[in-house]
């Protein structure tokens, strides 16, 4: 009996690999697992069988992140989603730059932005710029800011000043105070600095009881109550409505429709609600997957896309510009939508 000639099966094409740098052990392991889930959801949504993810544990340390990045590179990773913190990002980026691999880091600290690193978290400066623009659009001209004198507060102030200047507004009255300072006393000092003209809007770099104390003191100390502005930290804070001065205060947050869609799909896949930062991992993983399929190996720049938390655009400076929705503090304690998220890069944003 004559056997038919053997037929060589075509070799399976090599897949493009993305390293996922996650804290799968240590104190942030639960967050790391949720971020891994979100990344897997992003890969499913990409529907690209030519991309493979390589999850690697950083252990939540800079040394672990560097080691995890090098191990992933040895296995063929040519782009990275993660790691979580600034120190881990510096270590991973050092390894990634050796092969020209982009790093889409989950941190919100912009000090590592650029030179192949994109900061995927919502930065303090970005939040401040959004709030300055919203206040100006609402008719405010005299702006003030009260925040702790730490890295967060300083970046908040820098973004607030920059946007006020770009909008042609007077320089904001800024007071950065030591963290241990009585915040009500600092608020009274800001009111005194504002003078008899007062302030139309004040951005508070505080949350919870300190935000309530600052708002009450400023409302009492200024000639007329200002429009209070907050940060994304306010999104989960239902206690703010306990202070009458904060009712109607504005703060930025994820686009509710995009976030609800992401949470619904995540719940359907994993049977639990994702933590807030899981959306950052989804976006980073989706963009890293696109990067390894691009001829130059870089993520798409200047092209808005709809992410887990709303519109997002990667710029050439290493930042993820996010469209932030505008919310108000409602008497119920739940956020009330004022304005949906704009698309980054569009006129007026």
Automatic annotation (TrEMBL):
Family matches, as InterPro entries: BCAA_transport (IPR051010), Leu-bd (IPR028081), Peripla_BP_I (IPR028082)
Residue ranges of domain Leucine-binding protein in the record: 17-296
A family per Pfam: Peripla_BP_6
GO biological process terms held by the UniProt record: amino acid transport
Transport in keyword set: yes
The entry's keywords: Amino-acid transport, Signal, Transport
Coiled coil: none
Family the UniProt entry places it in: Belongs to the leucine-binding protein family.
Protein name listed in UniProt: Penicillin-binding protein activator
